[in-house]
Design brief:
- This protein has helices at about 5-10, 55-70, 115-130, 150-165, 165-170, 175-180, 185-195, 235-245, 265-280, 285-290, 290-310, 325-340, and strands at about 20-25, 30-35, 40-45, 90, 95-100, 105-110, 200-205, 215, 220-225, 230-235.
- It is of the alpha+beta class and about 350 residues long.
- β1 and β2 (about 30-35) form a beta hairpin.
């Protein structure tokens, strides 16, 4: 469905009604558009149904931008452009907020990891963001999504969904439920790491899919990190873990044929090496020991989330067929088994 930009939004940001507007990117949460006139801009409608606190996103990004400008002025960190009245967010009549970024020229995004070099560069890019924010007061940041990667909470959600699911859905998901319970020991490992203070709270990206990196078209190097809505306090295992989860298999979480899922050791090694090339000197011995846990933890979280949503009757994730969340859970549980074997 084509998104029509309200005239009040075009006017607020000083865009001509005759500006060329087209779809941009492959994101599923927000609606992102390219505005072409004398210059090129990225215009984005924030999904307030998912991100219910857009002002917190704006404030967190503003805090990070100020710190980076003072301590790492050479670092490219995308920031919003204000409207005519100095506002970062402009609310349309339907209550959805809009924002504008300058287009970063001569860059591109990719949706799938296709080489070790690409994996290394992406992981290096995400690691550099967290490294450059080392020293910032994380207590001044607020969560934009509460308990987003809290494995204990995600397991509790799974248990609640299971307790309230219909017998038919439980029967359909019998195998996946059994496998999910078999990995409950990861919840205990997570709780021990947190309770023991082994992990430092940092400002992390928290959504480290490779398409959240802009690559330089000419060099193939990581130019900058984008999609900063989940920039908030977290642990390194969240960022490294989601890179492993989304990069190590040659197929996505949507793949129905689980025999296509495999552990690409060369990609895994490149992701870890790329991340540690930036972060190793800032990590404690306990954190370095937790590196193999990261991918397993984040893959387990997504398996639990997909499975819980299926058991609830598919109330959160968009689906195109009734068993899609069950397929996604089965996919992630298979990947989790492989990560458990190899890392």
């Amino acid at each position: 469905m084509k998104l029509t930009v309200p005239p009040m939004i075009l006017n607020a940001f000083g865009f001509s009604p005759q500006a060329k507007i087209s779809s941009l990117g492959s994101g599923h949460i927000h609606q992102t558009l390219l505005v072409e006139g004398d210059r090129k801009f990225v215009l984005q409608r924030i999904n307030k149904n998912v991100f219910t606190k857009p002002e917190v996103i704006a404030r967190n990004n503003r805090l990070a931008a100020a710190y980076l400008s003072a301590h790492h002025p050479e670092y490219l960190f995308p920031t919003t452009l204000p409207d005519r009245n100095g506002n970062e967010l402009v609310y349309a009549e339907d209550g959805f907020p809009w924002r504008v970024y300058p287009l970063i020229e001569n860059t591109l995004t990719v949706d799938f990891v296709t080489s070790s070099a690409q994996a290394f560069e992406a992981a290096k890019g995400f690691g550099l963001l967290t490294r450059n924010l080392h020293g910032i007061d994380s207590s001044t940041f607020e969560p934009t999504l509460d308990r987003f990667h809290d494995l204990q909470w995600r397991y509790e959600q799974f248990e609640s969904a299971l307790a309230n699911a219909t017998p038919t859905l439980i029967k359909q998901a019998e195998g996946e439920i059994k496998r999910a319970k078999e990995f409950q020991f990861l919840v205990h490992q997570y709780n021990d790491l947190i309770a023991g203070g082994s992990l430092l709270i940092r400002i992390t990206h928290n959504d480290t899919k490779i398409n959240n990196i802009l690559f330089d078209k000419r060099t193939g190097k990581a130019a900058c990190v984008i999609d900063l809505d989940t920039l908030m306090p977290g642990y390194f295992i969240y960022d490294l873990g989601d890179m492993v989860r989304t990069g190590v298999s040659p197929v996505s979480e949507e793949e129905q044929d689980i025999t296509q899922i495999s552990f690409r050791k060369e990609i895994y090694d490149a992701l870890v090496e790329g991340y540690l090339s930036q972060m190793k000197d800032y990590m404690s011995p306990q954190e370095l020991q937790a590196v193999p846990f990261a991918g397993k933890m984040m893959t387990y979280i997504m398996a639990l989330r997909f499975l819980a949503d299926f058991l609830r009757g598919n109330t959160y994730y968009t689906i195109h067929y009734p068993e899609q969340n069950l397929v996604r859970a089965r996919n992630q549980l298979r990947l989790l088994q492989l990560l458990h074997q190899h890392t």
